[in-house]
Amino acid sequence: MRGAVIHAPGDIRFETLDDPKILHPTDAVIRTAVTCVCGSDLWPYRGAEPVGGPHPMGHEYVGFVEEVGSAVTSLTPGQFVVGSFATSDNTCANCRNGFQSNCLHREFMSTCQAEYVRIPHAQGTLVATEEVPEREMWPALLAVSDVMGTGWWAADAAEVGPGSTAVVVGDGAVGLCAVIAAKEKGAERIIVMSRHESRQRLARAFGATDIVAERGEEGIERIKELTGGIGAGSVLECVGTAEAMRQALHSARPGGSVGFVGVPHDVAVDGQELFFSHVGLRGGPAPVRRYLPDLIDRVLTRRIDPGRVFDLTLPLEQVAEGYRAMDERRAVKALLTP
Amino acid sequence: MRGAVIHAPGDIRFETLDDPKILHPTDAVIRTAVTCVCGSDLWPYRGAEPVGGPHPMGHEYVGFVEEVGSAVTSLTPGQFVVGSFATSDNTCANCRNGFQSNCLHREFMSTCQAEYVRIPHAQGTLVATEEVPEREMWPALLAVSDVMGTGWWAADAAEVGPGSTAVVVGDGAVGLCAVIAAKEKGAERIIVMSRHESRQRLARAFGATDIVAERGEEGIERIKELTGGIGAGSVLECVGTAEAMRQALHSARPGGSVGFVGVPHDVAVDGQELFFSHVGLRGGPAPVRRYLPDLIDRVLTRRIDPGRVFDLTLPLEQVAEGYRAMDERRAVKALLTP
Lengths: 338, 338
Known about the structure:
Chains A, B: Its cofactor is Zn(2+). 2 copies of one chain form a homodimer. Helices cover 30% and strands 25% of the residues of chain A.
């Protein structure tokens, strides 16, 4: 089969690879329906994370069950499945607590920009739809496997509820999905920090009520002006930089909550500053598996359409162009079709 | 009148001071019933915070209303009152959100180890009891004005609820009160980290089910052993050092919560470590005013007795000995009677 391999920063190649096989009785192999490039794939692509030798890429996927291991009894070949970027047995103590992305047997997926993918702990990781969904639904279901689940988690961690005022820091695919999540959870006011007109438009279409284009001190001032001088009850940090975290912490009101879902790079939080702010902070890799049944249902009933974050569709073999387009911010998120 | 003044680290004097007066229409002056020395008073006493010239000390108090300003309509001279170490108008946006210790007009009290005290924003800050409580209740009500309110906030911030497993880091007065709070909130298992036998006894009397005497890596291992290998759902950090914060973060399970209520000194939290832990973090100066009516009721109905944290009683004029005894850990907390 063929799939994407990173060789060095900026160097993505579409190569012939070994066909994935069942290695453990708990594995499944799926045939990829659609896959995509994630904002977090850009960290190594941009050299912000070490590459350390050629390796396959991709952790977002929906597909068709091709083959299952002997311990996988709930899935059958031909089923359409949605998974998470983090595998989970869905039975360990952390899974039972709803933190499947901290499963005691977790593996982070990293071979999904390919025609076939081996899924460890398939029974706990994958959720099959009742029927094969129409093709037009696939992008939204693909979004659920990561960015929509991550946006939902941001809203959860930031304690968004009915009547909330929510600030979303970041207008990438996760930030945009976080707007959907805040809206679905009943936020009355959703303020999105964005400087890009096309992303602002999509944010508004998803439910944003206000856009703040300023950054830094000016951005913080603007948020304060919009929130009665004290800041927002919920802030969803969807970037992962020190600047974004600072923006988030200073945009929350005393007693407010920051949910941070962008993998932090060079972020340190000063204990005394956090203390006197009274702001709560919770983040991490999204427990997507917890949300899958609900989010799949919201997509299939056409209540939400996170598939709109894909503004570029390419054949899988042009995966390198997908990276380039996202790196140069020509695209929010690139969908790849095998 | 007379009161305590710090001149330099280790140098507390009991001196004649100006009688406090009504400076603003929203002020009250109270005659101190009992006051005490706080663990946080030891930071400047030990030179861990700059002293910067002689200044009065003390922020915990219960007393009798002596005089009120013209804008104070809900209090009358002679009433017995309990306040908070942080003043609050109890009407601003932060107060209405329940974060009175972040009142837009907050002042931190700092003149309470004295015979009389001026209380700014008296109407929002003070809660009067219906009758003057029996003298034996005064220590418990005094505890409510800070350490018991702070222990309650630790349990709140750590999301302790019915059936919780809670770890309390720190066996000072706040840590011991945090045990009371965890018990009252329905925690089934309360693990206290303590190496001092007398404090362990009091912790058990307050509801602790397990004691862990180990610290550092060993302490973390011991907590994991006691919590099914994954850590506790709620951790109450009642110290404020980097070591205690580390202990707390590593004692919480994925998805668990750390409430941190000791003022952090040289504490920095690594963003990526917090991210991958899935642990939520919230702290700050306790919003004692929010809890006062409830905690006063729990004391007066003899449901709780946080007054037991006072294991040394001295005449106010011997305040310096109170500091010494706490500094040398001969006392958990020194009660001072004018």
